[in-house]
Amino acid sequence: MRRLIIETLTYPRIMLLANLEADDCPQNRYFNPDHPRCQLCQQGEECNWLNCNDEFSVLARKPIDVLHEALLYSIDYVGAQCSDDGHNVRRCACESCEWVRKARQISAEYLNIKKETFRALTERI
Ligand SMILES: [Zn+2]
């Protein structure tokens, strides 16, 4: 499941990278929460996500809950892009809409596994 979530984060990462405007960014897209420009930047949230989830970060060592949070954020982000472009995420066959459907399914599976694990643990007590 961990590997599946990490792989699923590849698509929104590429999309975010393509969408972020870096031409006038003094930080060259390295989000710094202490930098006044980053604090005021409208793309701060996306940029921070990208920095936390880029291919150089140690995703494999992050707790699975953190990976799932990143997945939820990217579902909202990609879903919003699709809606802005007038797509019907439930039916559209484009790559982004298909990604959103698949990612939602993975998220639901993860939550289900988490619930079952919790139930198994509490039954033992
Ligand atoms: Zn679409």
Question: How would you explain this protein's 3D organization?
Answer:
The chain has helices spanning 2-8, 10-19, 36-40, 44-52, 64-84, 95-124. With 125 residues, the chain is mostly helical. It has one domain (2-124). The radius of gyration is 17 Å and the shape is globular. Bound molecules: zinc ion. Zinc ion (ZN) is lined by residues 82, 87, 92, 94, 96-97.
| Average residue pLDDT | 89
Q: What proportion strand?
A: under 5%
Q: Which descriptor suits the 3D outline?
A: globular
Q: Which regions contain 5 or more consecutive residues with pLDDT less than 50?
A: none
Rg, Å, rounded: 17 Å
- Bound chemical compounds: zinc ion
Helical amount: 55-70%
Total domain count: 1
How many beta-strand elements? 0
Largest sheet: none
Structural class: mainly alpha
**End-to-end distance, in Å?**
26 Å
Order of helices and strands: HHHHHH
Alpha plus pi helix count? 6
Write the layout of secondary structure elements.
Layout (H helix, E strand, L loop, with lengths): L1 H7 L1 H10 L16 H5 L3 H9 L11 H21 L10 H30 L1
Helix pairs in contact: 1-5, 5-6
In brief, what are we looking at here?
This protein has helices at residues 2-8, 10-19, 36-40, 44-52, 64-84, 95-124. With 125 residues, it is mainly α. The structure holds zinc ion (ZN).
Provide tags for this entry.
binds zinc ion, mainly alpha, globular, 125 residues
